[in-house]
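Hi all, posting the design record for the shared folder.

TITLE: backbone redesign
STEP: 1 of 1
STRUCTURE INPUT:
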């Protein structure tokens, strides 16, 4: 279950000994359980949705007059 540790605290080092990045830039956005771009897109849509509800409520109902 436990993987071989790469550094003293278990993290993969940022650079290889020859200076190249340890993880390619293409994989940095797609590593993990959910890609970061997917989480950010869902969060942005949720923010617009909640703001839309507030704007809709300000033009209809009790606060409209």
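Okay, here is what came back for every position:
SEQUENCE:
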């Amino acid at each position: 279950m436990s993987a071989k540790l790469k550094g003293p605290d278990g993290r993969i080092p940022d650079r290889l000994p020859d200076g190249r990045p340890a993880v390619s830039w293409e994989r940095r956005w797609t590593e993990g359980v959910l890609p970061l771009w997917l989480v950010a897109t869902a969060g942005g849509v949720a923010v617009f949705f909640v703001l839309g509800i507030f704007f809709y409520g300000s033009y209809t109902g009790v606060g409209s007059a």
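COMMENT: Residues 36-59 form the longest helix (24 residues).
Let me know if anyone wants the other runs.
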